[in-house]
Amino acid sequence: MTIFTQMESQVRSYSRSWPVVFDRARGSELFDEEGNAYLDFFSGAGALNYGHNNPYLKAALIDYLSDDRVVHSLDMFTTARREFLETFRSHILEPRDLDYKVIFPGPGGANAVEAALKLARKVTGRESVVNFTNAFHGMTLGALSVTGNSMKRGGAGVPLVHATPMPYDDYFAGEYPDFLYFERLLTDMGSGLNEPAAVIVESVQGEGGINAARADWLRGLSKLCKDHGILLILDDIQMGCGRTGGFFSFEEAGITPDIICLSKSISGYGLPMALTLVRPELDIWEPGEHNGTFRGISPAFVTATEAIRRYWADDELEKATLRKGMFVEGRFNAMVAKYPEAGLTAKGRGLARGLQFTEAEQASRVCKEAFSRGLLMETSGPDDEVMKILPALTTTGEELERGLAIIEASVAAVLDPS
Description:
By secondary structure, the protein is of the alpha/beta class.
């Protein structure tokens, strides 16, 4: 029995899929303590868009720490905080003609969601929030109330209230017009739907199965919210920071959410950091009304600033991500065509990609096969029926080719073992 099984809670999960002890990491590779290399198409569940120990970010971090600069500061003013805010405004918000106030809600994505829900209710004076089928927004009670997965919801231990699920894009496979049910409930005085404070949505549902909403659907949702005075919260925690191409996953739809949630890769280095962006007129907090101890982790500000300066001063990373994403899509489509009897479906946008299996256990078997060949990837979807990849955006062409070859061999081992 190891120290991990002796001391850690049964709640641990990823270590069950990858039962080795990892020791070092560089770029798109992890190394176990025996020195074996694993190509990482998991990327910290999307927290490592620029790879492990990115050398540019690491240098900035080491310089900052070596100079005895402030590490912990709650919400006090620091030079690191100022440089991040200035860089985020000049490199991300202004080029996209976006105007948001920045809330540092705490260290993780669930903190960003909780702040968004809390502020939306304060602004509107309403309680109800509309979420979508197969959504995932976090594991704290408020975030869990707008999450769709029944297993995760079941762990709450209390009723999850004040949230109403609606069908996500293509939930009914095109059988009904977009928002037919939602709009009818909003306009029918007998529907029983409480007037919503907000709608919370992901442009691409990562944990829900790599379900990518169409740009037209997102535009329709944005219009519906405006028409009915409902705030639109865009959860970009996993799909933001360039995962789908543009810095924000909703850019291609041309919408402007009222509130945006960011975390995971915003620090660029895997350090805890989260943002809740709100339109200035919605910033009605009283001082200290939403606070927490870890809202000023300066090392995360430093790496976030360097990541934005290094990768978002131009559109080269965005173009490369879209190009790599199309390459992956082509290879996934080829696997779909190769095994027509398996009923595979290729899904996703940018470098958030999935291969859906009709038999859920096949996706898990493919991931297990891939691990045995030196590749890390996970499953997603309500039944873990989707094999999901989130390669670092900095993954090289050779690494991408090597990883896809492993995936093809793993799929073949499961679907065509002869």
